[in-house]
Write a structure and sequence with these properties.
Aldehyde Dehydrogenase, Chain A, domain 2, 6-stranded mixed sheet, 37% helix, single chain, alpha/beta, 2 domains, Aldehyde Dehydrogenase, Chain A, domain 1
């Protein structure tokens, strides 16, 4: 098996302790390779390298930074199938999905290569003719980026590309389950000729690396995607050094289908909002609210759609749904379904999972599972399942469903389906979510802001809004 290294200061370096982490294929438990189990010392070296690169990178003309990013983008496009294959092998999603993610990851690099040239300042009219007021934007400083396992390509570039465009060097800490995709992307950044220290990557345990990143004053900002629990911990840890934080955290997305919706479209869009990545998405639908007159038709069409689905190893042709990431994820899905059934829910499709292979932590698969007769006291209605479970509850009125949809501590994504433009706009405005898919199960895109309300996070990623978290605003008052 190949043994990989950390990337620090433009060099590939081994772990000081020589400790390693196995990277497994979640479909069958095959060992894909080994990455270093870095700790405080390697992380400190990465911080030092990034800090040393800051002044030079920040002072480069935006056009020069843009050229570096554009070259990186071109290399990612050239190697997209190779990256996607690695992504499928270590994360599990079907290869076509993985290829789509890699293409999106490359587009983040291209987008911010262009946005780097559009970091504008202001001249503000002064209150006296003896002064001039100028506002400029400057990079916030060294950035630590902590990325999750469920989108190991797009989450890397969605964080790194705007940071680099703004003039900030980066230290990347990818998830230990899926570091190989990030490694391939960083290899291409190296080949693109980015200056030494501008990008650094350390793999290893979250506790040792995270603690070092949070305590070091040279790290000015942390951008994190993951659980709300960890996000809250990072907020607390950031207080001592007053670090800026951007957090994209958990979700509990409702999927609202009104009686005037195009039911065929509402069912088709479930593929993006729920079935993609085996439901392992922060924006995945967790609760379905269907108006009572159309609930039977919606359920019947879902069952028909799922009946032809193929579950299996994502690298094989024709597979619609790959494995869950590990046994823990499988057990959570099982627990949510069993809890719902014990409280009166009925399984009308699916409900079966299985384990393949000899590895205890890999090879876990689950059918898309449709539940009806769902009630609010069930775990599926207030905890994030992160699996292909579709709990369906009927509703009568618009006010009722808006109240139910907003009754959560989360506010990342919501989906609603109606053929009434007036209803669509009014309900969208009343829903307490950062992302609204109106007749759209896949609203995330490179050029739009991604992020949530309430405990779903702080800040936005994507679009021109994604640059703001990496920039400081400086006001210069000039006496003349």
């Amino acid at each position: 098996m190949e043994k990989y290294k950390n990337y620090i200061g433009g060099e590939w370096v081994s772990s000081i302790t020589q400790e390693e982490i196995q990277v497994l294929n979640p479909a069958n438990g095959d060992v894909l390779g080994y990455v270093p189990k870095a700790g405080a010392k390697e992380t400190t070296e990465a911080i030092e390298a990034a800090h040393n690169a800051l002044d030079e990178w920040a002072s480069l003309p935006a056009q020069v930074r843009a050229k570096h990013l554009k070259k990186w983008y071109e290399l990612m496009v050239q190697h997209q199938e190779d990256i996607a294959r690695t992504l499928t092998l270590e994360q599990g999603k079907p290869f076509p999905e993985a290829l789509g993610e890699v293409k999106a990851a490359a587009l983040f690099v291209e987008w911010y290569a262009e946005e780097a040239k559009r970091i504008y300042g202001e001249v503000i009219p002064a209150s006296t003719n003896r002064k001039r007021i100028v506002v400029i934007k400057q990079p916030v400083g060294v950035v630590a980026a902590i990325t999750p396992w469920n989108f190991p390509a797009s989450m890397v570039t969605r964080k790194i590309a705007p940071a680099l465009a703004a003039g900030c060097p980066v230290i990347l800490k990818p998830a230990t389950q899926t570091p190989l995709t990030a490694l391939k992307i960083i290899e291409l950044a190296d080949k693109a000729g980015l200056p030494k220290g501008v990008i650094n990557m350390v793999t290893g345990g979250a506790e040792a690396i995270g603690k070092t990143l949070m305590e070091d004053k040279r790290v000015s900002k942390v951008t994190f995607t993951g659980s709300t629990e960890v996000g809250k911990l990072l907020i607390k840890q950031s207080a001592d050094t007053v670090k800026r934080v951007s957090l994209e955290l958990g979700g509990h997305a409702p999927y609202i289908v009104f009686d005037d919706a195009n039911i065929d479209k509402a069912v088709a869009e479930v593929m993006d909002s729920k079935i993609r990545n085996c439901g392992q998405m922060c924006v995945a639908t967790n609760r379905f609210y269907v108006q009572e007159d159309v609930v039977d038709a919606f359920v019947d069409k879902l069952k028909e759609r799922f009946s032809s689905f193929i579950i299996g190893n994502g690298i094989e042709d024709g597979v619609h749904i790959g494995p869950l990431i590990d046994r823990k994820a499988y057990e959570k899905v099982e627990n949510h379904i069993q809890d719902a059934v014990s409280k009166g829910a009925e399984i009308v499709f699916g409900g079966k999972g299985y384990h393949e292979g000899d590895h205890q932590d890999s090879g876990y698969f689950y059918q898309p599972t449709v539940l009806i007769n769902v009630t609010d006291d069930m775990l599926v209605m207030h905890e994030e399942t992160f699996g292909p479970v579709l709990p369906i509850k009927s509703f009568k009125t618009e006010d009722e469903v808006i109240k139910a949809a907003n009754n959560t501590d989360y506010g990342l994504a919501v989906y609603l389906f109606t053929e009434s433009l007036s209803r669509g706009i009014q309900v969208s405005e009343k829903l307490q979510y950062g992302i609204v898919g109106l007749n759209d199960g896949g609203p995330a895109t490179v050029q739009a802001p991604f992020g949530g309300f309430k405990e779903s996070g702080i800040g936005r990623e994507g679009g021109h809004h994604g640059l703001d978290p990496f920039l400081e605003i400086k006001y210069i008052s000039i006496g003349v």
